[in-house]
Amino acid sequence: MAASDASRPSRHVLCVDDDEAARYLLGRALERAGFVVTQASGAREGLELLQRFRFSLVISDYRMPDGTGTWMLKQATAAGLLEGTEVLLFTGSTNIEGGAADLKIVSKEGGTDNIVSQVLKLLGPAPQVGQQGLPAPSLPEAPVARIELLLYTAGRSPASMRALRQMKKVLAGYEPAQVDFQVIDLAEGRPASAEEDHILLTPTLVRRSPRPRTWVVGDLEDTTLISDLLEHSGVERRQ
Questions:
Q1: Which of 39, 40, 91, 49 is closest to 70 using CA atoms?
Q2: How far is it, in rounded angstroms, from Cα 169 to Cα 95?
Q3: pLDDT band at 166 (very low <50, low <70, confident <90, very high)
Q4: Quick one: 7-123 is in which CATH superfamily?
Q5: Max CA-CA distance within the chain?
Q6: What are the residue ranges spanned by the domains of the chain?
Q7: What's the pTM value of the predicted model, to 2 decimals?
């Protein structure tokens, strides 16, 4: 059933990508930047969501098994589903078929931060409450991050992908604004944080804060360890 206009959240982004890990990481980054994110695993699922809901922005991978992002956007445009909606296509390909002249394209090579920066350019930062010269209305205090977690991976190795899936499964049950979760892919280079965290093996999950710093090495098959770290750090479960 389609949602009414009144029930659709503002700054609502549709993220379409068949790569589950990439889609999840981009979704988390967009949520931290103040956006509400709906995810689709392919072009056809993305089109179905566009038929049901309105979005501030559609951000899509180009090449997916069930169709290209431009195919999805062409169908949505023909049906009048993208009026007032910004569109951003991200890809590693230099050959875009059927793309409109004004189609905004960003390279995957810049990583998630580059894509988020492009989204912020299109939609702007999260609006501030209140107007200049007027007191802001009283609002409930926003939740703050209570735990900082870094997952060190090695590209798309089976163990790294299992660890990421386990993290995704567990974090889905907790308040996302209270968890600062980042993935560091050592296949793309070894940042200073890896030296600070004394990373020798991958995958390794590190709780950086609250102290003491804690390490969990392996594919995180036992998700009880992750839940214990979250709950001992005071992270609240989703209502």
A1: 91
A2: 35
A3: very high
A4: Response regulator (3.40.50.2300)
A5: 56
A6: 7-123, 147-232
A7: 0.57
